[in-house]
Amino acid sequence: MSRRKPEPVQVVKQRRDAALRALVEGVPYIGFLGIEFDRRGDELTAVLPFDEKLIGNPMLPALHGGVTAAFLEVAAIVELGWSMLWEDIEAGRIELGQADEVLLPRLPKTIDFSVDYLRSGLPRDAYARARVNRSGRRYASVHVEAWQDNRSRLFAQATGHFLMPALDNG
After folding, report:
1. Is the pTM of this model over 0.85?
2. pLDDT of residue 14
């Protein structure tokens, strides 16, 4: 019995990157805010590059609270979508040219989202990582942490509950 030869690492990386790009580009608001995602293996870090339009209080200056909340919520939803796709990406069931909105699962819908503003967001790049605490067929719970210069010095954190999209039994 012969084992299948592993795929070249570049092919796997391209498939992962194409799936992530399709997931992110499917939500125009992510592009409006300028949020990007840094992927290392299965781990995603959301990156919010600083832009003047993100300032809420020019006297401090500080990031707008709504921008902070949206950044955390986007990080949570993309992490959930990514975790839903991971097995299909790794098994090669999502091909390079096929990673588009038609084949990608619908994103989860927010049930509730609670943000803790721990300190002002400074006028600089921000980063966030989401951790899926529970993900079932109907419901998911996600915790997100955001920081700027120092990972151990959070400026905001959030917990969200999401309604998972129905699986197609096609």
Report:
1. yes
2. 84
Q: Can you tell me the mean pLDDT for 70-84? A: 94
Question: Among candidates 76, 65, 152, which has minimal Cα distance to 113?
Answer: 76
State residue 94 phi and psi, 5-degree precision: -110, 115
Element of type H or E holding 90: helix 65-90
Cβ-contact 143, 126 below 8 angstroms:
no
Asked whether the beta carbons of 145 and 44 are under 8 A apart, the reply is: no
Q: Which two tokens stand for residue 82?
A: 């990514």
What's the CA angle centered on 66, arms 146 and 116, to 5 degrees?
A: 45
Q: Name residues whose C-beta falls within 8 Å of residue 7's C-beta, 6 or more positions apart in sequence.
A: 92
Residue 168: how many CA atoms within 13 Å on its side-chain side?
6
For the chain, the distance separating the N- and C-terminal CA atoms, rounded to the nearest angstrom, is: 34
Distance from C-alpha of 133 to C-alpha of 155, rounded to nearest angstrom: 21
